[in-house]
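Page 47, continued from p. 46.
Same chain as before, 253 aa.
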Amino acid sequence: MRADERKRRILARARADGRVDVAEIAAELEVAQETVRRDLRLLDEHGLVRRTHGGAFPVESAGFETGLKFRSASMVPEKRRIARAAADRLGDAETVFVDEGYTPQLVAESLPAGRPLTVITASLPTAAVLSEVPSVNVLLLGGRVRGRTLATVDHWATRMLSEMVIDLAYIGANGISREHGLTTPDPAVGAVKAQALAAARRKVFVGVHTKFGVASFHRFATVSDLEAIVTDSVLPAGEAHRYALLGPKVVRA
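Result:
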C-alpha cells in the first residue's frame, strides 16, 4: 500500500470513529506501529488530526465536521461538568445567547429554572428544551437550518442579532488556539457566532480539552475577547495558564 493511500485510510477511520488507535489500525493495515505513528505525525503537521497517547483524533475543517449525533455521545460526563460550571457564571445576566452545539445545549439545561431569563439561540434542540421552562422566554434566530447541527445561519440570523444587546453569550467553537483564536469550519456559522459576540457584554467559551490547540477553517474571535474559558480538568494546568495570560479566566471543571 502506498503511503498516501495509507494516510487516507487512517484519516478516514479517525473521521468515522472519532479517533484512531495506533495498534488497531496498524494491525488492520498490516504495517508496523511506528509506520502509523509516522503517518499520524504528518497528518498532525498538516492540521488534519491531533495526536494523543496511543492514537489521534480528527480535526474539524472546511471538508470535515462532526454532527450533533456524534457530539451528543462523545465525552458527555466532561461536557456536563463544563455546563454546570458555565451556568454558575450567569451572574446577574437577564438576556443570554446560547450557541449551537451539544455543550452549549447542556449549559442551557443547567441554567436556573426558577429565574426569569430571555435566551436567544440558533439551536433548534436548545430552543425545544428551553420552551418547556416556564420562566424562560426563548427567541429562536431565523434562517437556513443546517442539518448537521440543527442550527440556523445566514443573514436572517445575523440581522436579528445585530438589533440586540445581550448580557452574556455562551459560545462554542470547533477549535481554540492561542495563535488563531476561535475557529469553525463553516463561515456561515462563524458569522452568527461573531455577531452574537459583538452583541454581548460578556463572553464565555465552553468546550472540552480536545478543542484546544486546534485551528479550523474560519476564525470568528480571539481568545482575548473572552471573559472566561470553561473546559474540563484534562486540559493541563500549564496550558490553562498560558490561555489565562491572554485575558480570560480559565475554569477547569
